[in-house]
## 1
Amino acid sequence: MYQKSDLRGDSPVSIIGAGIAGAWQALLFAQAGRAVTLYERSDADMTLSTSHWAGGMLAPYCEAETSEPMIGRLGFRSLDLWRELFPDTPFNGSLVVAHPRDRADFERFAKLTTGHVRLDASGVGQLEPSLDGRFRDGLFYAEEGHVEPRKVLPELHARIEAAGGTVKFDCDISAEDLDGIVIDCRGLSARDEQPELRGVKGEMIIIETSEVELSRPVRLIHPRWPLYVIPRGDGKFMLGATSIEAEDTGVSVRSALELLGAVYAVHPAFAEARIVEFGSGLRPAFPDNLPRITVRKNKIAVNGLYRHGFLVAPALAELTLAYVQRGQIDNEVMRCV
């Protein structure tokens, strides 16, 4: 659908929030030739951003188990954009495994998802030698990938500046202070404008060991504490998967025990790993857990990315740019108020 946009022309574009949502908005607008300034309240380390604590998985097939079709549509388009603009992004696929006692949940996951091939025990061992003999079969999603948020965010910021944009850290600014087009990507901080947002806590642990090597994210299916293990290079792994309806930013004892117990179930050698870091981030979510682009005159809010930030942010930025440049509206994602 197309409509006449009040935002077309050569107005400068200001984006608030330099996490994954705002960074992709700034990059695509800068590459389109717009005058772009990206504002971030945190410093360049982005420790106040939810993106700092994210897993960075680009896994639309696996996410289909629990997400709406919209996430798949946006996710598949985002994979194309990651490949096009960041060709070094690892697309080594995802591996899903389970122990025999959790066979029913494994088969349920297989039925709810597509894009996978089944591997027998030998195939799992060939794909990930460290897991040889650990699992009798697995699901391999060859088209999926992953990024390391703490490495790719600085690269995104550098790309924005290379395209002619400006990135300003330690700058807590409001939309009322800015002229031209303002794109609000503040996450939970935007509840002053979007009070229906809620925070969903995602906890993570980073461990380090030289006894296990993985080439791709591995998901362990379990009815109570499903886990993903993401290789971060240099012997480091990120453990995650919790989604807790709470807005504190600590890591609970229960979650730590479950994550560490689950990774031990992936491989006993993880028991000797060194714990490097505990942390958590609050993911911004609307009641339906779906992302939304809201247009109000010269202000555009991009929010509610929930647990899919790195997966859907590129496609959302493309939709915002298409609206500003051509008045194109995606009726499933966009609201004009």
## 2
Amino acid sequence: MDHLSVIKIGGNVVDNPSALDEFLNNFVSFKGPKILVHGGGVMASNVLKSMGIEPKMVDGRRITDEPTLKVAVAVYAGWLNKMIVASLQAKGCNAIGLSGADCNLIQAVIRPKEPVDFGYVGNVTAVNGAVLQSFLNQGLTPVLCAVSHDCMGNLLNTNADTIASCTAKAMANLFPTDLIFCFEKDGVLSDPDDNNSVISNIDKATYLQLKEAGIISKGMIPKIDNAFAAIEASVSKVIIKNALNLNKDIQTTIA
């Protein structure tokens, strides 16, 4: 098989119909076999608020009680996943939408309750790369949502960046794999207010310097930590870029 790309798209784009449509057009034309991983936290939060439930977050991570889990599964594995798959079918891409429970694809354990009890949130323990390979061999494009399972009948909310990273690691054991994080910025920026200040390449030493200087901070830290964890697990490279620039070379490459 050719070089595989695991591409993750965030909730801010998923929740914007015109941006999502443009991204999916670019995704369909993106060369080579690929797997799409999507979030959807913005839509899940909006649905919760419409039900009178205020979303609870700690360090950017969602506290998932039972009502929140039901909404998250309905949004991520239901409406969003199937809407994305239907859109890809309309664009000529034969996609298959999957949660982590389907085909025993993404196994997880519930996150420890200390120091923060996140509720029904899963830490990924295994991704079934052989199943994904079988779909790819049939010419199908897997579309994965941010839901895993614990092999005991329970669904778990799981961070989409983590699912993308763990999926890329599993596939890298089978053939060369890149991991691409797509969001609303053009890459990692040296000036958060200037989208033209993209840092083209970041290695481990550069990352530590940028973090020490406060240039890389907040939510970008776990994203880049995930990136280096993927590289250490034989993922070829990790790219961070604007979702609307998928087929352009404006990006940050981490290797």
## 3
Amino acid sequence: MESVNAPMKIVAVSRKAAHGIAKPNVDSIHLIAGEGVEGDAHCGATVQHRSRVAQNPGQPNLRQVHLVHAELFDELAEKGFNVAPGDIGENITTRGIDLLSLPEGTELALGGKARVRITGLRNPCKQLNGHAEGLMEAVLVRDEEGGLVRLAGVMGVVVADGEVRAGNAIVAELPEGESQSLQPV
């Protein structure tokens, strides 16, 4: 894997035992390989998101960890939205890394030992409008060709256990071979 070098860090970590959008910030989270964030409603080897459980409860959980770039909150603030880390359901809020441009399979080393493999884009849902009316539409925009662009972060699976906290460094390792653009998961 090829490493990406830039000042990349975690600005907040969040978890919530019950389903719902906003997750409170905590001092640290523990990532469990093959499961996700210990104590979070979405932790599990099989899908935990309620809409996906209704479709097929046995499918693998490709959405164990949700990561969002803090730069999105800066952009949303310019549009009049007050969004802080954890407000849109992410477990890890980052700064200095363009999460949306990473290819599928990129591995993020978070802090000391924890590692997350990026599986795809978060497909935002209407629950975001419960935080602020119009927020879902603000994180779904159109590119120059009219294609839908999802801005609400990326999803991943835990490949190595570890504690993660605000201030930890992030190291991105790109997959070898031909890159696959992120698709919604």
